[in-house]
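This section describes the prediction task in plain terms. A model, or a person checking by hand, is given the sequence of a single protein chain and must write out its three-dimensional structure as a string of tokens. No templates, partner chains or ligands are provided. The sample shown here is typical of the held-out split.
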Amino acid sequence: MLVVLASVVMAVAACDDTTTVAPPDKPPQIKTLKSYTKTSDGKGLPSNDVYSFLTVSNGEFWIGTAAGIARYPDVSSTVRKGDVVNAVNGLPNPKVTCMVEYAGKVYAATWGGGIGVYDIAGNSWTQIVVTASGLQSPYVADIAVSPTPTEKKLYFATNDGVTIYDPAGNTFTHFTDDLIDKIVSSVEVTETEGVVQRWYGPRVDAKLAESEFALHGITVSKGASAVYEYKTTNSGLVEPNVNDLYYDTVDSLYWVSYSTTGMSAVDVTAKTWTNHTFVDGLPSNTVFSVTRAANTIWAGTQGGLAKHLPNGKWQGYAQSGGLQANRVRRVYSDDGSRLWVGFVEGGAARVQP
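The expected answer:
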């Protein structure tokens, strides 16, 4: 009996431990202002797999997905306008990888069909598809608009090089220089001190031998004919698999997003490459896209949204901190202050930058 009582006393004493453990740190928080998802009533996004955004000059806001374009009356609305634009009513393929507006028309790149062209004033669609003298591949990953009034051209990054399109004459030029990689994932066209620079980001087979892997890189065309290439052997390029190219006009830097090794900030004038990785605070070394919003550089990564800090490091935001999902494929700002994020199988959201 005494043994039983002793056991009870010991048990009570053990439960009377007043030692406290500090709660874990709260993950960095970010506020979602608007949410866009696929809904059961068919009135939301056609797919939660989001690739692109565009604020159109007529005030509409478009979201490009793997199953077509959802159009909204304006940036404040989350109620879709009319039917989804897909392969039935305008697009050559429903998977919309990029959208740009130029000279009263929206150009929607698709993965597998070519390009859908929407005439804003006429409210009508036409298509740019593969022809002998036109677009050379139906797989279009990116579109860039030339920033110079003298050039007035569009650049299409495809699975078979770059197609340069002149809308005025409806003519196509295939960029076929030996330096350019066949599969072009991204394109950025800028003008610096009167010189047009065209950057073409490659996509190569990761299984290539190291010696062959090093032969590929970012092709740069300056002026009318000057062409060269940034490789891992002659520059600060970390890898030749580029997800996105973004030129930041504020800091005059090219941001290069990689498939597996983070990203680089390139100062062409100083000839410096500053590399950023998971060690610097990026949520993932797989970086999909970059933009500037609220006077800050933002990156979409496989592990969440990343904000560039004044000290050069990064602050990551994930689903545990209020983000709608973790994998951020696209970051977009239409006016330099608003910020949207498009998720891999997670819909889209406008967040407070």
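For orientation: The first helix runs from residue 2 to 15.
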